[in-house]
Design goal:
The chain has four domains: 2-130, 2-Layer Sandwich (Beta-Lactamase); 233-338, PAS domain (Beta-Lactamase, 2-Layer Sandwich); 352-516, 2-Layer Sandwich (Alpha-Beta Plaits); 531-784, Alpha-Beta Barrel (TIM Barrel). 51% of the residues lie in helices and 22% in strands. It is rod-shaped and about 215 Å long. By secondary structure, it is α/β, with parallel strands linked by helices. The chain contains 27 helices and 25 strands. The longest helix is centred in the N-terminal third of the chain and has 45 residues, at 124-168. The structure holds ligand C2E. Residues 548, 564-565, 576-578, 581, 597, 623, 625, 655, 685-686, 709, 742-745, 762-764, 769 line the site of ligand C2E. Residues 222-264 form the PAS domain. Its EC number is 3.1.4.52. GO terms for molecular function: cyclic-guanylate-specific phosphodiesterase activity.
Length: 785
């Protein structure tokens, strides 16, 4: 405002100055013109001095029309403090020139008057006023400032300072406990509002703090619960960063490696090396892959030694997890040692025999295949020894299975000690063992010699006495040997060759060693040929069923028959069942042939019964081979066939050998019981040749004992056989069983049997086995007796 005022003042001053100059010129020009006209120097000087009398005019010159100076004068310019301002806002000096004209002379110029004005001097009153205005303004403003300062201090600043002091003393942990007090006389104004708003804010802060504390507490508790859950999990949980450092581990994991959870923090995987039995570098690589997302997750098996020194198998899942601001590998491990042990055990059991822990047949076959390939590749020979214990059943039957088992264990031990470590000792079944002597010699004769030496050593070791409790037991062994590679023979053929050689030993009286030779090879190949012929025989229906009558020793009436298989070979004529039944057995064909026999017998029974030839109480026996009887589906298959035929009641009998019964007595009882329900009775064939014990005889549903024909043959001459036959008859009668004597060829034999109380017989004395038609006639004749 002062500036505007000064500016306007300055303009006004300028105008006044111009007006003044104008009047000065008006007043001065007439005398100056007169002085020029009259060339009056005094007057000119008077005019000049008159002008210089003005303090702001400091230079004056009067000239005529020719420019000659009539009079001039000047005054010194005063020094002022305002000149610099004048130069800044206007010019420092200003020159005015006025033309001098003489009245009555028209416009002709008689001369000029020139004078220069000192603008600074001319503006001196303006500067004076301006100084006054500014000074007064400053004074007023200063007064106002002081006044306002005190007013504000009292009314605003002081209350505000009090408020600030109160605010800074607020306890931030308990904002709700602090109150801001109202300032006197300011309850209803803005300060009052500030106080009440601040107090409300403090309450809100207190509330939100309380809420936050409650949330924090809940979070801490839930974190603690989760931690407890993870800690108490029966699995090991940990997290590792990409450098392999544990950033977390639960108790199970920490305990496992003998640390506590705090020690596990920042523990590096390599610190676990005393426990970790796998490749640490590989583990870190898996961690990295999982963390970097190259694989979604990884499941692996790890092998550890626990802090207690036990070997432990873990199944570990590794998966990515975001842990705070870092991506890590979450590692969850479960102890699968038990499962693993069970797996190892199962694998071991699949390849080993449970009793002796020796490799079993599966293992033997695999290993032998490998050895055979090796021997062929490197051109050397090895040998396979098939060992069967002689009369082992006697021990089992007379002393019980535990003793038998102990002997088998000791035999296994002796076999292992008799061979080199790289050789193989296996148990095939029961009392059958196989020894594979690997890498014997490149020369076959030398290899055979070496095999013979070892075979003999084994035979001797086996026949050394076995101690059980106080008893001294003796067992001998029959050893069959085959040197391999043998032509193109497979592993199974090799085993069969050695088995054949072993049987040769048995046939020659046991307790010896025998090599598989060409004669045996011929026998084997003949068996193979026969196997093919038997297949064809079954296909084209070459088999026939013959019937041998069973006769009552006293009445000589027919009480039944035994069905016997006959094979009229198209080229070789009748082949004895003694020769082809073992081949049927070995090839498994016996099952199909046995079913054919059963069906054929059923058909015959139905035919005879319909013809009225089959009297009630008569029985037709069929022979059941061990392999047939042991089949899981045997009962089911027989019942399926029986269901198809309407047989006379209790007319079918099955002959089984003692060997079948002994193998698995419980299973045998169950099979026989099942079939007995369908009206099938059982006869024990070849009785006396085995090691039957009365105890199992009592528990079996057997109705008939058949005395083997080898005892009947010499019954007349041999006292021992007589005693044996008499004993069997007496025993059978005591047990309520029928006794049938086989192979009765002569009358004296029958007489003796009758005397001993034997019920029935069969043999050439009455009739050999005869075909269906002939037996039908036999029955008719018998009926007519
Ligand atoms: N020396 C002499 N022998 C007599 C006399 N009476 C009968 N035989 C013969 O003695 C054998 C009795 O049969 P096995 O002991 O069950 O012995 C049978 C039996 O174990 C088996 N077999 C026969 N047929 C079958 C069958 O259908 N299935 C099964 N699994 N085995 C059968 O073959 C063996 C031999 O049968 P086969 O050669 O028919 O020989 C029969 C029979 O012909 C006699 O007075 N003197």
């Amino acid at each position: 405002m002062s500036s505007i005022q000064l500016y306007l003042d300055f303009k006004g001053n300028e105008e006044s100055l111009e007006n003044l100059i104008k009047r000065v010129i008006e007043v001065t020009t007439p005398p100056a013109a007169r002085a020029v006209h009259t060339l009056d120097d005094d007057l000119s000087l008077e005019v000049v001095n008159g002008l210089l009398a003005y303090d702001f005019i400091y230079e004056v010159t009067i000239s005529d029309e020719l420019g000659s100076v009539l009079a001039s004068g000047n005054e010194p310019r005063p020094k002022t403090s305002t000149r610099w301002i004048t130069k800044f806002i206007a010019e420092d000096s200003r020159t005015y020139v006025a033309r001098l004209t003489i009245p009555g002379y028209g416009d002709s110029v008689a001369g000029t008057i020139r004078f220069t004005v000192d603008v600074d001097v001319a503006l001196a009153p303006f500067f004076e006023r301006s100084g006054l205005i500014l000074g007064a303004g400053m004074l007023r403003n200063a007064f106002l400032v002081i006044l306002l300062f005190f007013a504000f201090h009292i009314m605003l600043t002081r209350p505000l300072i009090r408020l600030v002091r109160q605010m800074s003393s607020i306890d931030l942990d308990k904002p709700g406990a602090s109150r801001i007090e109202y300032v006197a006389d300011h309850r209803d104004d803005e300060l009052g509002q500030l106080v009440s708003t601040t107090n409300k804010l403090l309450d809100l802060m207190e509330l939100s703090l309380a809420k936050r504390r409650a949330v924090e507490l809940a979070l801490r508790r839930s974190e603690e619960h989760i931690r407890q859950i993870i800690d108490n999990l029966p699995v090991m949980v940990g997290a590792r960063n990409r450098d392999g450092n544990y950033i977390f581990a639960n108790k199970a994991l920490a305990n496992f490696v003998g640390k506590n959870t705090a020690e596990m923090q920042n523990c590096h995987v390599s610190d676990l090396l005393p426990f970790y039995l796998n490749d640490i570098a590989r583990l870190m690589e898996i961690d990295r892959n999982v963390i970097e997302g190259e694989v979604a997750s990884e499941v692996m098996e790890e092998n550890f030694r626990s802090a207690g020194g036990k070997q432990v198998f873990l199944q570990t899942h590794i998966m990515p997890m975001d842990f705070y601001d870092e991506r890590v590998a979450l590692v969850v491990s479960t102890d699968i040692s038990e499962r693993k042990q069970a797996q190892f055990k199962m694998e071991f059991m699949a390849y080993h025999d449970a009793l002796t822990n020796l490799p079993n047949r599966v293992h033997l076959v695999e290993r032998l295949e490998h050895e055979l390939r090796r021997a062929r590749r490197h051109g050397y020979h090895g040998a396979l020894l098939f060992i069967d214990l002689d009369h082992f059943k006697t021990i089992n039957d007379s002393l019980g299975h535990p003793v038998g088992d102990e002997v088998l264990i000791q035999v296994a031990d002796r076999l292992l000690k008799a061979v080199r470590e790289e050789d193989l000792v296996a148990r095939l079944s029961g009392d059958e063992f196989v020894v594979v002597l690997t890498v014997l010699d490149q020369d076959i004769s030398a290899a055979a010699l070496r095999a013979a030496e070892v075979g003999e050593k084994i035979r001797q070791r086996i026949s050394e006495p076995y101690l059980y409790d106080e008893m001294e037991l003796r067992v001998s062994g029959s050893v069959g040997i085959v040197v391999y590679p043998e032509a193109d023979s497979t592993v199974h053929e090799l085993i069969r060759f050695a088995d054949t050689a072993m049987y040769q030993v048995k046939e020659r009286g046991r307790d010896a060693i025998e090599f598989f030779n060409t004669e045996m090879a011929d026998k084997v190949s003949q068996q193979l040929l026969m196997e093919g012929d038997l297949h064809r025989a079954l296909e084209v229906g070459q088999f026939e069923l013959y019937y041998q009558p069973k006769i009552d020793c006293t009445t000589l009436k027919t009480i039944g028959a035994e069905a016997l298989l006959r094979w009229p070979h198209p080229e070789k004529g009748f082949i004895s069942p003694v020769d082809f039944i073992p081949v049927l057995e070995a090839s498994g064909l016996i099952v199909a042939v046995g079913e054919w026999v059963l069906e054929e017998a059923c058909k015959s029974l139905v035919a005879w019964s319909e013809a009225g030839l089959w009297q009630p109480g008569m029985r037709l026996s069929i022979n059941i081979s061990p392999r047939q009887f042991r089949r899981k589906t045997f009962v089911q298959d027989v019942k399926a066939i029986l269901d198809q035929y309407n047989l006379p009641e209790e007319s079918l009998d099955m002959e089984i050998t003692e060997g079948v019964v002994i193998q698995n007595i419980d299973e045998t009882i169950s099979t026989m019981g099942n079939l007995a329900e369908s009206g099938v009775s059982f006869s024990l064939d070849d009785f006396g040749t085995g090691y039957s014990s009365i105890s199992y005889l009592k528990s079996l549903p057997v109705s008939t004992l058949k005395i083997d024909r080898s005892f009947v043959r010499d019954i007349v001459d041999d006292q021992n056989d007589r005693v044996l036959v008499e004993t069997i008859v007496t025993m059978g009668s005591l047990l309520g069983m029928d006794v049938v004597a086989e192979g009765v060829e002569e009358e004296p034999q029958l007489e003796l049997l009758k005397n001993y109380g034997c019920h029935y017989y069969q043999g050439y004395l009455s009739s050999p086995a005869i075909p269906f038609d002939k037996f039908e006639e036999w029955l008719k004749l018998d009926g007519d007796k």
